[in-house]
Design a protein that fits this description.
By secondary structure, this protein is of the alpha+beta class. It contains 3 helices and 6 strands.
Amino acid sequence: MGSRVGRRTELNLAMQAIALRRLMPEGSTRLRPGRLVWTGRVQPTADTSRYHLRIELKQNQTPTVWVLAPALKPNVEGLLPHVWSNGSLCVSQRHDWAPTMYLTDTFLPWACEWLTFYELWLATDIWYGDGVDRLDAESQARILHPYS
């Protein structure tokens, strides 16, 4: 029999739902077989807008997060930084999250961080979310994606 010391237990959808309800009781948590959907409002900092988010987690998949309101504002070319082709936010790389991690410790704060960088991008046209290596024009162009 192998040792369980050092291993983290995979969290089921009900455990994720409970953590979301505890942290964000004013949000809405729907739990269906194989799927968890949370919607709620966040304000990343005192100086940022309030956003209505939707986080969806399907069994054995990476979570996704969308901004429901206010509508995100692409630039004049119709591009936004760090969004996936389905319109969800790119808040991490695919390997950054594992089913042993709570959404309340990962995707929820990552989405708030994304929103903070988004508001800075709106004000400066520079995406600060990826570090100094992304501040040149060529690197900035690579992070912009079509958004509809």
